[in-house]
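Lecture notes, unit on binding sites. The following record was shown on slide 14. It pairs a sequence with protoporphyrin IX containing FE.
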Amino acid sequence: MNTWLQILKLAHILGFVFMSTPLFNLLLVNERAALKAPQAYLPLRYMENIIGRNAKRCYVFQLTVLISGLGLVLYTGPGLKLIFTEWVIGLKTLILFLMTGLLSYVHFGIQLKIENLLAEVNSDSVPEEILTKLKPLQGRRKKLASFCLFLVLVAIILGVQVYSHFPISITFILIALSALFTWRAFKSLMSYGWI
Ligand code: HEM
């Protein structure tokens, strides 16, 4: 394999590793909930700054995965038609576009509304009426982040099967385990990594 191809593959791997943002956003949200101080403004502002900026970072990593993926297809296979003829690559491409769509909905829809609400806060404590409006938005964003995490995991499971497929039963078991992992990330602090 030539060096450029290996560098493309490295960019592809780094891109999807850094697309683990939904996992760390979920853990961040769960850490703040564990503080049991829902009205404290500073931890909320700190968390929202990180989540807001992570969205922009995630666009860059998604683009890295797309460009390097297309490069790999062009270099190694019979060209772009592989996206339509090889279901693993086709599905990974669809998943990536779906994730960009979800990210855009969260960033330009939900996050903007959250920012507008937080702009109304002018003390160290978030007023109850703003909290009541914030909670459903944060709840929806958390569910979407979990779905995105699940999609990243599925795409990685497919990614390692580009040229040689696992038995389909193993693929389904791994996808079920991904759903379980996502559920844990949604619900807990996952203090021991996997659990
Ligand atoms: C969510 C998006 C994606 C994820 C998480 C992902 C993940 C992966 C993973 C885990 C591998 C295996 C790397 C290895 O063997 O070391 C891989 C390889 C590959 N991916 Fe992706 N991928 C994504 C999107 C794409 C897209 C959009 C394309 C092309 C249109 C693509 C094309 C390829 C190709 C051709 C390989 C094989 C590289 C090789 O073994 O030489 N991927 N991907």
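Take-home: The chain has one domain: 3-187.
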